[in-house]
Amino acid sequence: MGDTVDEELPPSKLGTKEHWDMVYQREVRVFDEVGDEGEPQSSGFLWCILLPAYIFARFGESSVTKMRNWAVNHLPPSPAPLRVLECGSGNGTLLLSFLTTPSTSAWPDPTPQPFHLTGIDYSPLSATLSAQVESARRISLEEEGVDEDEEAINPVEVEWRTADLLRKDFAGEQWDLVLDKGTFDALALSQEVVEESGGRLPSIVYPERVSRLVKKGGFFLITSCNFTEDEVKRRWTKDGLGFVFHSALPHPSYSFGGKKGTTLCTVAFQKVLDLPSGSGKMSSVSTPLPPNGGSSSATGVSTNGHTHVAEDEDLFICIDVGLQLSYEIIAATVLDAIEKLPDAYRPKTNGASSKPQNGAMKSPVRFADVWVGPRWSDESSALTQPSGLPSVPILNDAHLLGGALLTHHCPWGIAVIAGTGSVVVALDVREDGDVTQIGRRGGLGYLLGDDGSAFDLGRCAIRHATDDFDAGLEVQGGLAQTIREHFGVDQTGEVLAKVYDLDPSLSPIDATNERKLRISSLSRPILEAFSRPTPDPLAVRAVHDAAKPLVESIVSMVRQVERESGATRGSRTNGTGTENGEEEGKRTNAEKRRQVRGAGLVMGGGVIRQDEYRRVVLDMLRDRGVVFGKEATVGDVAAEGVRGLVEKARVRG
Fold first, then answer.
1. In b/e form, how buried is each residue of 561-595, taking b as 16+ CB within 10 angstroms?
2. How buried is 523 (Cβ within 10 angstroms: 0-12 exposed, 13-18 middle, 19+ buried)?
3. Which of the two ends of the chain, N or C, has the fewest CB atoms closer than 10 A to its terminal CB?
4. Predicted model pTM
5. All domains of the chain, ordered by start, with CATH?
6. Is the distance from CB of 637 to CB of 373 less than 8 angstroms?
7. What are 209-248's pLDDT values in tens digits?
8. What is the 3-state secondary structure (H, E, C) of 171-183?
């Protein structure tokens, strides 16, 4: 194998640090908006519903579960903490899955296992996001616990590091298990040579660096979507690396370009010392096989044929995406979702041929309806072939909140997102169940807007704190003290310099993002101070000042919708404002229903989901004479969207 020359992948922005810095900036925003960490390396999630049963599959969730379960089955129990490293840890989701030990076929009775977890990523925002996700996960475990028959909570120490794996000297530091979920894929798309390693490509240097991090007898577990299982085996069992193939995990199959394969592969290797030259294997090393005997064949839904689903068992899909994801990743998630269906609802093939259209993958099933809501676009995109539909509506992510209007049977409503950013959208539900946007306020970003958002809360609190300091009215302790500690200063008068400070050790993009996050991350302590039995006065002023313009946007949007409906009615009443019975009967449903008492207010985002903050917004709306017929708070936008699709189908009968 040592003489094999590997074909390199063409360069892509996915192989650049700038791209991933942007990814984690968006991931941090997603986390603050919806209280969800998105997905490792992809920031998106997908719901599928099959009437009458429903399932849930998130981008990357299946791979995370597979990798964690593999570790449970193959890492030997130890009273001392097992050391686990993730290379390119992203948002930390994979690494944090080790906070609990699940019940598996090999270990049906889970017992706590100590771990020391280390996440390394070259983006500073990755460490910021991972720490936030870790805090949320630990709080959730404390409050909700686990089913002791299904999972055990592990004693775990976690550290998040910012470092370049291709260049950092680890001084002999090693781990029992090293994980890679997509990092090798990304590095293989980079053409920026590593000068410190003889000007070679990252795809060549990376395996050598990883090999040094795995201790003798330890394991390297990798999931890839750019390389086949055979390609991964060849690249990672080369002479000098010290790895031997251990086992592979199954993933759903697909048909693409006339070939059949899997969109993902997960392969495990074990570290040994003395490898026979050119073999890549060592028969003297005893390695336990996975429960399936080490088979690497994919299981799940074959796409090599047409699928039949009963007419009363339609399949719906809703995708809430933070980034532009490839067809392959979306297809892999859909196939994973189909694979998880109960046997009674799993589609069956008839063996007929299913050929790709224009080189694009085709879904093994025909979806009855699809909603796609990317944060990166409000415009349509060519997603018709993967879905099997003639057209697919591309909506903004706030638009997906319209699913709650359908499930709550509201003829129209206002969707409000208030997280790191904010936006207000007016939505109308047509008679056929389609949800259309009829107005919008905000969504302008933190420089021009984001009223009522996490950033706005921080901005308002800092402004009031500095005003109090300048006026000699500052109260000792409380939120003002929290702000000083947050920025690492002794006096509030020093805060402003820290607010505008840019870290010279970071790139301009990183430094700007870090400065923004310094302000928006204050929202949590502000809301905590506001929610105390005796609210902090500074927090009260900050919350009310931030909420006012958000409320104004909602009121403005409501008045616009009512005004436009009134203008339509007035055009048929000769300006009298009244109608006789005959004219009343001629009014369209849209004209009849656009009154706020019949509308719904749907709220999403990490800030507005906080009870005390939301109460302030609703009280301000009532003071302005705006009371909605129904109010709903949405934690998972995609879940609400797909429920709306089901309700839409019922409306159409």
1. beeebeeebeeeeeeeeebeeeeeeeeeebeebbe
2. buried
3. C
4. 0.55
5. 13-271 (3.40.50.150), 312-409 (no CATH), 410-653 (3.30.420.40)
6. yes
7. 999 999 988 999 998 877 888 889 988 988 888 898 888 8
8. CCCCEEEEEEECH
